[in-house]
Amino acid sequence: MNFNQIVIKNLLQNMKHYVIYLISLIISITMYFSFVTLKYTDEVASTGDVMLTKGASIGEKFLFVIILFFLMYANRLFIKRRAKSFALFQLVGLSRRDLMRMLAIEQMAIFLSTTIIGVVIGALGSRLLQLIVKKALDIPINIKMGFQFEAVSVTLILVLAAWLLIMLQSLTFVKRRSIVQLMNDAQQSEATVPRITLIEVIFGVLGIFMIGSGYYLSTIMFKNEYLIGALFFIALAILFLTVVGAYFFFRSSVSLIFKTLKKNKKGNVTVTDVVFTSSIMHRMKKNAFSLTMIGIISAITISILSWAGLGYTSAQKNVNLTSPYEYTYFNQQDANAFETALKEQDIPYKKYMQHLVSVPIKINNKSVRYFEAVDIVRDSELEGFHVKQDEVQFINMFSITQTATKIDEGMMLQLGKGAYQKTLKVSKVSKENLIANNLVVGSPVAVVNDKTFEQLQLANVNDDEHPQATQIGFELKSDKAHKVADSLNKKINKSNPDPRSEVEKETLKFTGMFLFVSSFLGVAFLVAAGCVIYIKQMDETEDEMHNYQILRKIGYTHQDMTKGLALKTIFNFGLPLVVGLCHAYFASKAFNVINDSPTLIPAFIMMGIYSVIYAVFAIIAFIHAKRTVKFTI
Question: What Å distances lie between residue 525 and 161, 179, 302, CA to CA?
Answer without folding.
Answer: 19, 36, 10
